[in-house]
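Page 42, continued from yesterday. The earlier attempt failed because a stray header line got pasted into the input along with the sequence. Redoing it now with the clean sequence only.
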Amino acid sequence: MNTNQRKNKLSTITLDGEAVTFTEGETIYKIAERQQKHIPTLCYDPRLDPFGGCRLCVVELEGARNPVASCTTKATPGMVVQTATEEIEKYRKVLLEMVASENRELDVHPLRGYASQELTTLVDRYEARTGRFAGMKSGTSNTVDDNPFILRDYDLCISCYRCVRVCAEQEGDYAINIMDRGFSTQITTEFNGLLKDSACTFCGQCVQTCPTGALGDKKAMRAIDLPGEIEKTRTICPYCGVGCSVDILTKEEKIVGILPAMDGPANKGALCVKGQFAFDFVQHPDRLSMPLVRGDDGELHEASWDEALDRVADGFRKTAEKHGRHSIYGISSGRTPSEADYLMQKFIRVGFGTNYIDNCSRA
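This time it went through. C-alpha cells are written below.
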C-alpha cells in the first residue's frame, strides 16, 4: 500500500452506511452536503463560522452519548454517522414545533428576503404546524425604526443570530447585537436605538440571511400586492468596479427588488447599500424619456433623437477641430449598463484616438 492509498483509507467515515472520504478539517455537515444528503438547519450560512445554535442539524454518532451538531463537529477517521434515523427526525419535528410556537406567523412573502422561506419550508417538510406548544410569543418588533430599507419585525425572530454574525463576520460593522437572554432575547443596536444612528451601512446582508423574514426588504415589500409573478434576471451591478452578481426581481417588467447572488464569484452574496437598494432611478417618473436640446432662448426643449444626435455630433466635431482631439474627455455613469460603457470607450478610443475615457465605477 503506497502513501496516498494509506492516507485515503484513513480519511474515511461511514455516512448512512456508505464509506465516504473527506479532507482534514471538514465537518460532518459539509461532508453530508457534498453527498447530497439534506440535513436541516436554521442557524447555518455557508459564509459564516459554524454556530450550532438551532440544533436541527444533529446526527447520531456511534459511540457518542447524545446526538451531535453536524455543522460544528469535525470528521475524524472511522466515524460512523447516521443523518436521518427515526429518532433524529422525530427530534427535529418537535424542535420545529417549539420554534414555530413562538412566532406570530410562519407564512411570509418571499419578497422579504433571499432566505425568508427557510423556516416555512422546514415546518411544512416536517408537518410541524401542530400548534400543540402554543403559548407566549417571543420577540418585540421595532415599529418605530423609520429607516427606508430594513423592516425589523422581531415577532418573527428565532434567535439564530445569523444577522448578528453576518454583520460582524462578513461586513465588519458590528451594528447589531444580542440583548437579554432566554425567552427575552432580542436583536438590537447599541443602546437599543435606530439603525440609522448605529454603525449600520444598510448593506442588506442581515435581511438576506434571515431565515424567517424577521428582517425584511422594505423596498421589495412595496410590490407584494402588485400583479404578476416574480421573475429573476441574473446580471452584474454597474455601480463600481467590483462586478457583484445580482438577481433583479421584476413583476411585469417592473423592477421591484434586488437579491445578491450567493454564488457570485466577486461578491458571494455581499452587496453595498447602492447595489442592494438603489434601483428606483430606473423607473423614476422624473427620468427623461425624450432628448432635450438647448434653444436660442437658452432653455431646454424636447427634440427628436435625430436632431439631438446631430447636435451632439456637430458639437464634438467643432470642438475637435478648434482645440484638438485631446480636448474631448468621456466619463460614463455607474448607472449605465456594461454595454453602454463599452460603446462609450469605443467612441472615445476609435472616434478620437485617445484614451481619455473614465467611469465613476472605476474606484
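Notes: The chain has three domains: 3-84, 101-221, 305-359.
Reminder to self: strip header lines before submitting.
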